[in-house]
Amino acid sequence: xxxxxxxxxxxxxxxxxxxxxxxxxxxTYSQFNEKAxxxxxxxxxxxxxxxxxVALYAPNSIDWVVFYYGVLKAGCVAVTLSxxxxxxxxxxxxxxxRPRAIFTEASKLGVLQRLKDxxxxxKVICPDGDVDLQKLMDxxxxxxxxxxxxxxxxxxxxxxxxxxxxxxxxxLSHESIDFSSHxxxxxxxxxxxxxxxxxxxxxxxFGQIHIMNATVASAGCLEILQGFDxxxxxxxxxxxxxxxxxxxxxxxxRMLGLDDLERKLGKLRYCFSAAASMAMETVMRWKERTKIxxxxxxxxxxxxxxxxxxxxxxxxxxxxQTVQAxxxxxxxxxxxxxxxxxxxxxxxxxxxxxxxxxxxEEGTRLAFHKDGWLRSGDVGRxxxxxxxxxxxxxxxxxxxGGENVYPREVEELIYTLPEVESCAVVGLPDKEWxxxxxxxxxxxxxxRILPDQIKSFLKSRLSPFKVPKEYFLVExxxxxxxxxxxxxELRRQFQGGFPAKTFAFGSERS
Length: 510
Known about the structure:
Blueprint: H1 5-13, E1 18-22, E2 25-28, H2 29-45, E3 53-57, H3 62-73, E4 77-81, H4 87-97, E5 101-104, H5 109-115, E6 123-125, H6 133-139, E7 154-160, E8 168-173, H7 174-187, E9 195-198, H8 205-217, E10 221-224, H9 230-238, E11 244-247, H10 249-255, H11 261-264, E12 270-273, H12 280-290, E13 294-295, E14 297-300, E15 303-308, E16 321-322, E17 327-331, E18 344-349, E19 356-357, H13 361-367, E20 374-382, E21 388-393, E22 398-400, E23 403-405, H14 407-415, E24 420-430, E25 434-443, H15 451-459, E26 470-474, H16 487-495, E27 502-507
Parallel strand pairs: 1-10, 3-4, 3-5, 4-7, 5-6, 9-10, 9-11, 11-12, 12-13, 25-26
Antiparallel strand pairs: 1-2, 7-8, 8-19, 14-15, 15-16, 17-18, 18-20, 20-21, 22-23, 24-25, 26-27
């Protein structure tokens, strides 16, 4: 088995269909497959061996996707790193994963040359590096069949830990990513006629598996942007060539501020949101304006997808029903399964679950119950129709005066206010209450936020202990490269002094 077989199948069935497109450049599936073959045979010709690690440290591009599939075809393991890593962060992850070669851009060459190691990183693949990508492909052959691997062999390592500060290398097998890719394509009713727009980073599970791998598995076209650029997004959608759109909640909120939105979306048939829970108010406003439902599923780097909200029976406020062959249980703090309707930790078993964390036996042990079920760290419950509702992250739970507050419940209400663009509710240390519920709010451009009105609004709908005691107006919230609001970073910024461009405008200490 080899995940890259999906590319070979799509190339065999649809050789002339567009596969990859970026800024006027386009590859058909036949051309894509041939270039990936050249990368694979080129890597083997310079001494790489099946099972060895090869890193990718570059922004989104056609070359990134081609190189990734070439690595897989050669039987190697793709270690995908954010191109935004600092030198210190990069050095730490290279020391941890020990790739033999790395694909990057010319601007990173100086840093990487200093990090080369005879026992680790040997080859830097970029212009003026040890090997230029084009020269590597010139060494290779356009005709090659992906090397067979065991289905449980690691295909890719994705680093996670943006919300905890401790990077962990998630080992995903060929079987796991293949199952995920085909499940996503099935639930999204994807075909070779679809064109998916991707500006999410390919090193992240959302961009790499949900968008890139699933699109290749369904033989669709992947239109690539290096990052979020509203003008280029609208150029692609208005041009009518994009049918599937993927973003994070903050992007959808920003787009709702556009005039004539429905026309600007062109021929979109499908919208999907990930990285963070979508406020119900945003989903309903988007549907009202565009007639398109924003779909959501549930998953994480360690297991994705776990549930999927159905194409034809979408339930707003839930993340759908369990994906085929995947099992989900809601468990209490002792690990005991709870009956339907009860709230507890979401636990998972099935082919989507990771093998474990690279070189981290303790972290792997803590991630699983003794009976092999993955602990998600998320709190949820099933409704009467077996749709999963995610309540919040366990670590985001606020305990104030002995009472439990799930921030998402408060955030959902704040999002219903038309003056609010985005928000985050966190617990900050408090000598009297243990933690005080605190709201950070980004207003819509041109809107005026009145703290007394927000407090009155929340007090009329929430128990008193859930109502934030402090409110802060901010121009932006700290986010991961994938668009997830980083509450840990927000707390850190606050405790080190007010975040930049922040104005405290409401406080209630009692």
